[in-house]
Known about the structure:
Blueprint (H helix, E strand, L loop, with lengths): L5 H8 L1 H11 L10 H13 L3 H14 L8 H16 L15 E6 L6 H14 L4 E5 L5 H14 L3 E3 L6 H15 L3 E5 L7 H18 L6 E7 L4 H14 L3 E5 L9 H9 L3 E5 L7 E2 L3 H9 L3
Parallel strand pairs: 1-4, 1-5, 2-3, 2-4, 5-6, 6-7
Antiparallel strand pairs: 7-8
Bound molecules: guanosine-5'-triphosphate (GTP).
Guanosine-5'-triphosphate binds next to helix 6 and helix 7.
Amino acid sequence: MSAESWSDRVFGGLRKTSERLSENLAGIVTKAKLDDAQLDDIEDALILSDLGPRAAARIRERLAGERFERGVDEAAVKEAVAEEIAAILRPVAKPLEVVAFPRPQVVLVIGVNGSGKTTTIAKLAHLFQEQDYSVMLVAGDTFRAAAIGQLGVWADRLGVPIIKGPEGGDPASVVFDGVKAATDKGSDVLIVDTAGRLQNKRELMDELAKIRRVLGRLNVEAPHDVVLVLDATNGQNALQQIEIFKEVAGVTGLIMTKLDGTARGGVLVAAAEQYGLPIHAIGVGEKIDDLRPFDPDLVARVIAGVA
Ligand SMILES: Nc1nc2c(ncn2[C@@H]2O[C@H](COP(=O)(O)OP(=O)(O)OP(=O)(O)O)[C@@H](O)[C@H]2O)c(=O)[nH]1
């Protein structure tokens, strides 16, 4: 762990998002009481900050119902916004837990190329290692030699075994080998990388369905988790990806990466409100320990600019 604390990194990572919201809210509250026009402006500001129409409407509702005992000013509004964002995030904040019996717990990781999938797998492996779980990786994206190579480099660095097939090989057969190897070795967690070819929905769907069939034959419970990795810099497109991957892959939870590179981190709130899928962790940097289970209250306060 680097010297900087995790909350400092979340704060630093979400700084742009927080500034965006502050800029959008600046100067809106000008009267002693919030009137409808001001509430409309606040709602617009929240939508402009990528929180999405549903979360924005919910926060508006909350503000309209607030009594603001100590007078209304920007700080009071931000405080109420933070509280409502926390109320949206709390129910979905769920770390990935290793509960599978028999072992291994099979975690299928999906997401479009470039979303940060490979790095996230490495960070997840590290997170599990820190909890004393044994981890094995499967390079299931057999379409790109680079993806296999990159995961291999991470596996070496972390000292975890990795099962690879030949480039162009059948992903389901590599996954099969992975589950067998992890079972034989008694590994606690098996993390499976998959191809992210969203351009060809049919092929992707067939491939994931085949992986599921093969997994199910070895262990009816597997995959235990289907984790979608999203790149926060994609803003509203990230929501579309949830929609599509839910349909093709039966997503069980989300990890949002690259929150440090964007002012669009509000999309985390939109995703939570719109889909209610568990959010397992957030990524705020490229280093191995830049991924942690997320603390909804901390994130809410940072986004709203009251931390
Ligand atoms: N700033 C920042 N960069 C990240 C984060 N997560 C991943 N990255 C970077 O994003 C880039 C893409 O990450 P990969 O892990 O290669 O993503 P991928 O989805 O596997 O992409 P392909 O291998 O191209 O399919 C890399 O340069 C990572 O270092 C994050 O939380 N913050």
